[in-house]
Fold asparaginase.
Amino acid sequence: MKRILVLHTGGTIAMHEDVDGDVEQGAQNPLNDAHLDLPEVELTTENIFNLPSEHITPTHMLALYNRLKDAEQDFDGVVITHGTDTLEETSFFLDGTLSFEIPIVMTGAMRSSNELGSDGLYNFQSALRVAIDKQSKNRGVMVVLNDEIHAARFVTKTHATNVATFASPISGAMGMVNKRKILFFYDLPYKQTYPIKAVDKRIPVMKAYAGMDGHILSLLADSGIDGIVIEALGAGNLGEDAALGVLKLLDAGIPVVIVSRSFKGIAEPVYDYLGGGVQLEKAGAIFASAVNGQKARLKLLIGLENQLNTNDLNNYLHEF
Ligand code: ASP
């Protein structure tokens, strides 16, 4: 018998359609009385929040972390249900802060509980099957929806409404849920995790664009932010004006993290001219590998909350 802790946090998987066809929250999570065909599992269920995931903040992620940090003693696995809009961020936060052997599996749904083709119960059962599978240990936090298993590290929401929304553009899915078997395609490279006690740092994310205004960036130098993530162009480049704004931020001692606004590939310094990645890095900007803006923000938050020095922060953001 496997002991699985289930934490429900809300999201479409916990919602239903009203008479007008609008999707809304209910007081009760429909999964609480779901009938599951998994006789060898003992579930301990907690409705820790009932929130649409747009209302989830790092404070909620920290509450999940605090609930989970000793869970390995009592459980063989964890399943967390969550709204899909910010699921990748909560999964990434937990993946970066909890160093667990037991699986943590997150899931959600794109169609609410009483909609035609609702995917919630199916995804929940798939997540439980992955959580009890013996191959699932030491894989960090996984995201299971639509018969695919993704590593929190690489997964992102790619479609606003389609049930096949979660994908790992850089690595591909880590595994697959079949009718009888769970298959894993690869193991993950090592990654550092850091514990966390607070989530107070202010870190905005800005997206670069042709003609990006450097003045707006320089205004942030005096705004009390603790760091900034810029989704830069291509391999991590900026226009001249934006580059001058970045120099002002760096002069003010604000960590500037560069990721690519491109959907695939990683940011790395290639070009040596004003705004090119080579010059941005020489000026002190940090290149974060294989993460999008929202994940780089959480990584910077975890690094700053752990008071990493410049060198360690650089290494931490660089590694996959
Ligand atoms: N708006 C919903 C949420 O993230 C979307 C979903 O769960 O699919 O809470």
Q: What stands out?
A: DSSP finds eight helices and 16 strands in the chain. The radius of gyration is 20 Å.
